[in-house]
Design goal:
Elements lengths: L2 E5 L2 E3 L21 E3 L1 H15 L5 E8 L3 H11 L3 E6 L2 H6 L2 H14 L4 E5 L10 H9 L3 E11 L2 E8 L2 E8 L2 E5 L11 H7 L4 E4 L32 H11 L3
Parallel strand pairs: 1-4, 1-6, 4-5, 5-11, 6-10, 7-10
Antiparallel strand pairs: 2-3, 7-8, 8-9
Length: 253
């Protein structure tokens, strides 16, 4: 397996409380801490481990977004990726970009880079779409394995373990393939200071969706973004009979 392409997304940091803009057109991003999507960190870690085990020769990180996305790519390079590709879009375009656009971009790059494997996080923590991996595979007509919690390579194919409602499902997929990763696959490493310094010298290639022939025109219109409804305070009941009565009164039983 010569080359692994890893998709990484810049998202609002998981520890930050997200606030809706006053005009309800989206969420506040200015002056807010951003970081790499946690599931994408797992994807980068897995790709780097594959290289360390001599299962892959090169790891290429890709991010689509505004100029600040290069910070996310530098993190991936510091973790061990060999080089990076920044697909630059304006902040306004980025707010409306969707998984269908990202999947087409990554599919085009997978072909251009002659990648054998595309790895992405199972979902981004900002939009929770869980669509990109499936759409990449559909565009390329490659086999896909999602929510991977274990990956092993044997003779030109991957053996994948994935958690399902009833337990663990084991799949075999032939390479080239697209996989999305779950939390239990690995624990991402911290980028050390020497590797952070080395990452500054690693190349980041800049292109645009137009260079790849991908139209990023929005297919949706955001009508309104609302804060979730506040939960009402609970109440303590003395016994099960009272609980059943209250549930019936509320129309839940």
């Amino acid at each position: 397996m010569a080359r692994v392409l890893v998709g990484v997304k810049r998202v609002i940091d998981y520890a930050v409380k997200v606030r809706v803009k006053p005009d309800k057109t989206g969420v506040v991003t200015e002056g807010i801490k951003h970081s790499m999507n946690p599931f994408d960190e797992i994807a980068v870690e897995e790709a780097v481990r594959m290289k360390e085990k001599k299962l892959a020769q090169e790891v290429v990180a890709v991010s689509c977004g505004p100029l600040q996305s290069q910070e996310t790519l530098r993190t991936a390079l510091a973790m061990g990726a060999d080089r990076a590709i920044h697909v630059e879009v304006t902040p306004a375009e980025y707010e409306m970009i969707q998984p269908i656009h990202i999947s087409k971009i990554l599919a085009k790059l997978a072909c251009a880079e002659k990648a054998d494997l595309v790895i992405v996080g199972k979902q981004a923590i900002d939009d929770d779409c869980n669509q990109t991996a499936q759409m990449i595979a559909g565009t390329l007509d490659w086999p896909a394995a999602t929510f991977c919690s274990k990956i092993e390579k044997n003779d030109g194919e991957l053996t994948i373990a994935r958690e399902v409602d009833g337990g663990v499902e084991v799949l075999k997929v032939k390479i080239p393939a697209v996989i999305s990763v779950d939390l239990r696959l690995n624990e991402p490493r911290y980028a050390t200071l020497p590797n952070i310094m080395k990452a500054k010298k690693k190349p980041i290639k800049k292109i645009t969706p137009k260079d790849l022939g991908v139209d990023t025109t929005s297919r949706i219109e955001i009508v309104s973004v609302e804060e979730p409804v506040s939960r009402k305070a609970g109440s303590i009941v003395p016994d099960v009979d009272t609980l059943i009565t209250k549930l019936k009164e509320a129309g839940h039983a």
